[in-house]
Amino acid sequence: MSNWQRETTKTIVDNYGLILVCLLVIAALGGYLTYTTHVEPGTDTATRQLSSWQSSGSFSHNATVRNGTSAFVEGTVLQDRSVYLTHVAPLLSGSFTYTYGVSNESNLAVDTTVLVRYRSVESAGSPDELVYWQVKQTLAHGRDESLSPDESMTIPFSLNISDAAETVRRIDREHGGTPGQLDMTVVARVDLSGTRNGQHVDTTRTYLLPIDPSQNSYRVEDADRITHGDERTVDVTVDPDYGLLRQVGSPLLFLFGTVGAGFLVFARSTGQLSLSNREQRWLAYQSTREEFNDWITTGQIDQVGDDVWSVTVDSLEGLVDVAIDTDNRVIEQRGGDEFVVFTGDRLFRYRRPPEPETNGEFFWNRDEGRTDDSDGS
């Protein structure tokens, strides 16, 4: 048996219980995976989409320079700015665009009204919103009896901000001057009717473009594209889709754990998984030799005089202890089997055990119950 075979055997013997448990766990896991993959795979639940839809509405706006200045040339179109100067470009022009997409056949009639909403309000946009008064005026209107999916419906509009600002102040004066904040918003109301993905539809969508006028300018709030959508799904039962790794790996895992555990038990019960006393002593010596290598020097050991006492120690570890206590080094005979520590008047000796024969034996071809105790000396 070679050294690596002895080391492997010793490791298995020293950790027999742990290795056996690990192999049994592997076998159990492989068996479970094999059963649930090939014998009783069960079913999974998957969600499948029946239909889906999505609609969106968006504003774009611009203002043409009516009163040219040094900075703005008359006739210049100012596009999608956040702030416009009232004296320079008092007329806000814009358009509202609506479109939708579906997964199945649809037929929608789309009626769109663009209007300006004036109101006096407190805590706008909050749950405590309080509206003192509200007036709406239509700016534009359009209708499409059959708007196809992915087509767009665009409604242009225009609003003179100077006139609108005066209008909202006039209406508030009519109500005696309310304590609320005066509010001006372009509103697009989209009425939908017909069928969408085979389902009847009759609903209204509202899109807002807030405008905040001040003494010399007006701010148009950023109106991003607003999207609505939904989908119809159904849960269906499907067969689980196990990958190739699990399909092939689970039986191999079960086979490896079962065969490994069976072989381990058989080898131990028949005495094939064992080390002779000579092999055990040799492995113990090698371990100690590696552990205390820093204390050992290889050299030629010569004969000493009769006035030097000679002491034989039982182990290499004991000889190293002597070297440490006397502050000396352990000398290993070059090409021999002897270790010594010389302290001046005493010579401490240790002879390593003989190395077992390397004959290729390993587990399955060892002599049953072999416990050879001979050391060749």
Key descriptive features of the protein:
377 residues, alpha+beta, 3 domains, six-stranded antiparallel sheet, five-stranded antiparallel sheet, 6 helices
Description:
Keywords: Membrane, Plasmid, Transmembrane, Transmembrane helix. Pfam families: DUF5305 (PF17231). This is DUF5305 domain-containing protein. The structure is a single chain. The chain has six helices and 16 strands. It has 377 residues and is α+β, with helices and mostly antiparallel strands. It has three domains: 1-42 and 239-275, no CATH class; 50-236; 277-355, no CATH class. Helix 2 (16-39) runs antiparallel to helix 4 (244-269). The two termini are 20 Å apart. Mean pLDDT is 86; it is low at 360-371.
The tally of beta strands, per DSSP, is 16
- Please report the distance between the alpha carbons of the first and last residues: 20 Å
Oligomer: single chain
Mean pLDDT: 86
**Overall geometric form:** elongated
What structural class should be given to the helix and strand makeup?
alpha+beta
Uncertain regions: pLDDT < 50 for 5+ in a row? Answer: 360-371
